[in-house]
Each structure stands twice: as C-alpha cells, then as structure tokens.
C-alpha cells in the first residue's frame, strides 16, 4: 500500500500549521519599525536607522586643501604620511589645537614622523612642492614606515596627498 497524506494525523496537522505559519511570515513580514535599534538579528531587516551613518569618501588632497583639516573649532583632523592621508579625528587629544602633536594636523607629517620630531621645522611650507624625503636615512625611513603601520591599524585612510598643481 502506498503511503498517503492525511490531515487526520496530528503530526501532519501540526506540520501543515507550521508550514502555513512560516509561509505567512515570508509573504506578510512584520513591518512595524521598533523604537530602538535591534541589538541582534531576529526579524529581518525591517528596521531602518533614523539617519544614514556617516560615510567617508576617499579624496585626493593637496597640501593646501589638507590644511583646513587642522581640528580648530572642533572640525575633522587629517594628516598625511608619505602620501597617505589619515583621518585622525579620533586622536583629537594628540592632534587637536592643544595636543602635543598639533603641528601635524592638516599637514604632511612625513618628515616629523621619520625624524621623530614634532618641531615646526619638520613641516614643508604649503606653497612648496611636496617633501621628497630623499635625504632621509634608512633608519628614518623605517621609523616612518613604523608610524604608517601604527596609523593604518588605528585610523582610517581617507585619501592621498598630491602636489598642489596635480589637481
Ligand atoms: C617628550 C617625549 C615624548 C613623550 C613623553 C611622548 C609620549 C607619548 C604618549 C604617552 C603617547 C601615547 C601612546 C599611546 O597611548 O598609544 C604617544 C604617542 C605618540 N607619539 Fe609621542 N611622546 C614623545 C615624543 C614624541 C615625538 C618626538 C614624536 C614625533 C613624531 C611623537 C609622536 C607620537 C605619535 C605620532 C603618537 C601616536 C599618537 C596616535 O596614536 O595617534 N612623540 N607619545
């Protein structure tokens, strides 16, 4: 005798109800938006944040367009090392106007990082071509690379630094 499907069996009835319940959950998902963001994935992606989270656009900077990002008045803080621009806003204590390394804010910090000095003389005038760093010793280059590693692990890379006349 071939097996036949009958609803009179309690197991089958339960199975059909179970399937119907999940079909209606798929076809008619709950659309009520919770008041608070969900802390775990449960009911699908029906929750929308109130606003889009901040985004970061990878941008080409020159020494002049980088300068305004010096963190004065609470704004974003960027600095460049060997052509890579980092958003170091999270390190405001270091790079803000009162920070120990505030000189680097909005500037090409390559030479200072290489020579382990935050003196103002380490910075190239923003009207001048980019510092080619050709006179650095191999130890200084290694030191600078060490800082690039540190910054890459800690901050977001948000652009590259090019010559003023390159854009
Ligand atoms: C007077 C000597 C110095 C002292 C006492 C000092 C102290 C410190 C301290 C306590 C930190 C924080 C470390 C951490 O929490 O991870 C730090 C980080 C740092 N220091 Fe110094 N430092 C000195 C000299 C310098 C110099 C000469 C430079 C020049 C390049 C420099 C560049 C930095 C940088 C770039 C950071 C990393 C900040 C960050 O993570 O954003 N420091 N320093």
UniProtKB/TrEMBL annotation:
One of its GO terms (cellular component) is endoplasmic reticulum. Residues 61-162 form the Cytochrome b5 heme-binding domain. Pfam families: Cyt-b5. SUPFAM superfamilies: Cytochrome b5-like heme/steroid binding domain. It is found in: Endoplasmic reticulum. InterPro entries: Cyt_B5-like_heme/steroid-bd, Cyt_B5-like_heme/steroid_sf, MAPR/NEUFC/NENF-like. Coiled coil: none annotated. GO terms for molecular function: heme binding; metal ion binding. Gene3D superfamilies: Cytochrome b5-like heme/steroid binding domain. The keyword Endoplasmic reticulum applies. Keywords: Endoplasmic reticulum, Heme, Iron, Metal-binding. Belongs to the cytochrome b5 family. MAPR subfamily. This is Cytochrome b5 heme-binding domain-containing protein.
């Amino acid at each position: 005798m071939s097996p036949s499907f009958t609803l009179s069996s309690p197991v089958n009835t339960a199975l059909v109800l179970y399937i119907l319940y999940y079909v209606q959950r798929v076809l008619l998902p709950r659309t009520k938006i919770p008041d608070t963001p969900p802390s775990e994935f449960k009911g699908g992606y029906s929750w929308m944040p109130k606003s889009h989270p901040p985004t970061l656009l990878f941008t080409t900077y020159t020494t002049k367009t980088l300068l305004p990002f010096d963190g004065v008045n609470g704004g974003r803080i960027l600095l460049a090392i060997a052509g890579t621009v980092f958003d170091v806003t999270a390190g405001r204590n270091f790079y803000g106007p009162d920070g120990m390394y505030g000189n680097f804010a909005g500037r090409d910090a390559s030479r200072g990082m290489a020579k382990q000095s935050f003196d103002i003389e380490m910075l190239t005038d923003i009207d001048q071509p980019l510092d080619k760093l050709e006179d650095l010793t191999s130890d200084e280059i290694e030191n600078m690379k060490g800082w690039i590693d540190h910054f890459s692990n800690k901050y977001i890379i948000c652009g590259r630094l090019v010559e003023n006349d390159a854009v």
